[in-house]
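#struct-help
A.M.: can someone run this one for me? Single chain, 812 residues.
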Amino acid sequence: MMRNLAVAVIVAAAIGSTCYRDAPVPVYAAAVTHKARMQDWPVYGGQSGENHYSSLSQINRGNVKKLAMAWKFDTGEKGSIQTNPVIVGRVLYAFTPAHEVIALDAATGKLLWKFNSGVKGDQPTRGVAYWTDGKNSQIFAGIMNYLYALDPATGKPIESFGEGGRIDLRKDLRGDYQLQSVVLTSPGVIYKDVIIVGGRNPETAPAPPGDIRAFDVRTGALRWRFHTIPHPGEPGYETWPKDAWKSAGAANNWAGMTLDAKRGIVYVPTGSAVPDFYGGNRLGDDLFADTLLALDAETGKLIWHFQGVHHDLWDRDFPAAPVLITLKRNGKSIDALAQTTKQGWLFVFDRTTGKPLFPIEERHYPASDVPGEVSSPTQPYPLAPAPYARELLTADMLTDRTPEAHAWAVEQFRTLRSGGPFVPFEVNKATVVFPSFDGGAEWGGPAVDPTTGVLYVNANDIATTGMLVANNPTADLGARTYRSQCAVCHGINRTGSPPAFPSLIDVESRLTPAEISDTIHHGKGRMPTFPNLQDDTLTALLKYLRTGKSNEAENSVAGGKKELSHEEIATGRATTSGGQDSAGARVYASHCAVCHGDQREGITPSFPSLVGVGQRLSPQQITQTIRDGKGRMPSFTTLPDEQLNTLLEYLRGPQPATEVESASSGPDWMRYLFTGYNKFYDPDGYPAVAPPWGTLNAIDLNTGKYLWKLPLGYYPELAAKGMGHTGSENYGGPVVTKGGLVFIAATIFDNRIRAFDSRNGKLLWQAQLPFAGVATPSTYMVDGKQYIVIGTSGARNLKGPQGGAYVAFALP
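D.P.: on it. Structure tokens below:
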């Protein structure tokens, strides 16, 4: 990225505790040597090549146990920090949970300046990009749909870039730009004088195309674009229905990209096309969705490509940018790249030609039986290295944490379809996705040591389930809008999959209509923006969110209207709960429906159904569970006895059945809907598969063999009971150093950062963080001292402490 010259940013004077956009502290630039530059962390992922590697070795195997906290910067904000900080000279650049760009003294953590764009919205922000020509320098920051160019010395927008210091990424795509949803979650890469970016698009139609674009770093002018949904005459056009480019969406680069500055090649992994789970409107292989692209960084022309999933029906797109590495084969050096996947696979290619360095075969998989769908008969499968996550869930792999949890898991597993990778979803029957929708590998990406050729990757190893249901075009506008735009994440019944996707039942008791509208239009967390939902459509959606009712004739029960549970859809029966307007029903709606559904159907298998709970548990047992909590369920110690009694009466009440007509077909892209991302968790809130639930892996890319593999993370309450090696969900990546260490935080429940011996995986050091370190660390040197810094936040674990802070460690 910074090819010959670099800029060190040096603090001029004493710094106050708070500096704002309109009163920045002056920071000056001076040229430094290549050696000094190597002490920085100048790009997202460390150096050009995304390899998460540092040649620093002051902190090493022999002294890492002495590491102590050097400084902490508390943002004073709640939310998510996923940022891998960039460090140039002695200045650290990063984001706060509220999307403010900050500059900190990298040696002390003191705030130098803060830039608040004033742009509404809440989306992941994983890093900034730094550019210099040796004379001038700029910070590029993606904030929602805008790409800003900021002065590294002051944080002020550079007015000559775009329109007043920013460009709107929604423009020049398709249709009315104000109705488009594009946000920049991962920073772009810079080659010479262009910045190359992708963007995050919605998971549902309508969505804009995922064009890869390059902009002039000085002016913001568009220099080139690559159509990931090909236009007539372009390669790949024949893999889509005719004229798909006019309406098909996504195939976007949300995961970041990698630059080979020497060759002038940018490697771009793309996401799936929309809608994610039903492809009746996009029959064909859908190039260049789910594809690793090698593009000429100067012109945008295609050099080579590899499609990882043909006609994706599982949201199995590439989760992170590839890493560059030079390998040894038969005594020869080969410049290679390695691409991780959500499936737990690793693809390794010659980065110049795209030739696989380990065999890949096209394997046959079952065909979809969903009407209107035509799944690909084959999918690529790497024969080496072996997967770093399990692929096929069988009954002997279910949890044995307790006899009760095991029995529950066995009973639930019998109702699921489990056939391994690329088994198409069915209508009205849940299918196991293993590893989960979140991988396998995730957006943090791997680290690779260029001196050894060893790659280090952390992985999730839990299961999720998903299924399709037939849509009903006779529903009113609000219900249709919810199902087409919201149900993919929040579930067909609005129950969500907390904490990633919150329940929307009773949402009006938590947010005003104006706040709900604002969230819809500007997004929040993993939720994209929906600026296209306006006027009558928005009004109808708000009404549906408030009532959960539509005018569907087939759902009419005694003259009323009700939503269908997953169980009801699967069995063809609808139930009435009786006494929907009773005091007990109101208590249930306020306190229980958020997890167990408005019809008590639960979110199988994450949150158990409460239908018939009165036959399974005594009133005393139900009362104790309500008062004390259980698993992921909090305690309700303050619930008044009167409300508790009415709730017990409601829970033990009957639910008579009535018939439901089958739903008819609608437009191709809406014929079938995905019911939501459901984690296969036991009733106590732990994965229903046997550990490990998260791992850290070391793979020699020269041979494809594993050096070591170990569980990563734990649940503190299980560790207290002797289960300290379960592993846990983890997000964010590792860093490997010349000092022989692998640093990683990532785990969401134990709030730890750890250092492992890169040779054998031995744990050498760990420290407690204020919040979960769901980000990738950075390491750098200032004034002769090496630091490790990590962003921490509480958004992934809502039961834990909330906040956001950057924490740096160094030797005494």
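A.M.: thanks! Confidence is low (pLDDT under 50) at residues 1-34, 553-580, 656-667.
D.P.: also worth noting: Residues 15 and 375 are 60 Å apart (CA to CA).
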